[in-house]
């Protein structure tokens, strides 16, 4: 069974558009939303397990230019 999560992302300055475009091309990303409030983007992801989620978050999403903070919310019900 796949693991689903939402990642709330803070982006520095005017990097929101470029971060949006880069993140939407990452494998495992199902949707990217630009939002108002404390975060700039919300990303819906689906991975096989926690290790894959960790790799996607640390190696890919946090490495995107302009990303300054993330908060990951695991989906507990289907």
SSE layout and pairings?
Blueprint: E1 3-11, H1 16-24, E2 29-34, E3 41-47, H2 50-61, E4 67-74
Antiparallel strand pairs: 1-3, 1-4, 2-3
How would you explain this protein's 3D organization?
The protein has 78 residues and is of the alpha+beta class. It has a single domain (3-74), classed as Lrp/AsnC effector binding domain/regulation of amino acid metabolism (RAM) domain (Alpha-Beta Plaits, 2-Layer Sandwich). The chain is 27% helix and 38% strand. It contains two helices and four strands, in the order βαββαβ. It has helices at residues 16-24, 50-61, and strands spanning 3-11, 29-34, 41-47, 67-74. A four-stranded antiparallel β-sheet has the order 2-3-1-4.
- Please tally the helical runs, counting DSSP H or I stretches of 4 or more residues: 2
- Annotation, overall tally of beta strands: 4
- The helix/strand order is EHEEHE
CA gyration radius, whole angstroms: 12 Å
């Amino acid at each position: 069974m796949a693991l689903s999560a939402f990642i709330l992302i803070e982006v520095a300055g005017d990097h929101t558009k470029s971060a949006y475009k880069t993140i939407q091309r990452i494998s495992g990303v199902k949707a990217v939303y630009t939002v108002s409030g404390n975060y700039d983007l919300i990303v819906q992801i689906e991975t096989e397990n926690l290790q894959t989620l960790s790799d996607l978050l640390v190696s890919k999403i946090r490495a995107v230019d302009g990303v300054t903070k993330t908060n990951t919310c695991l989906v507990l019900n289907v």
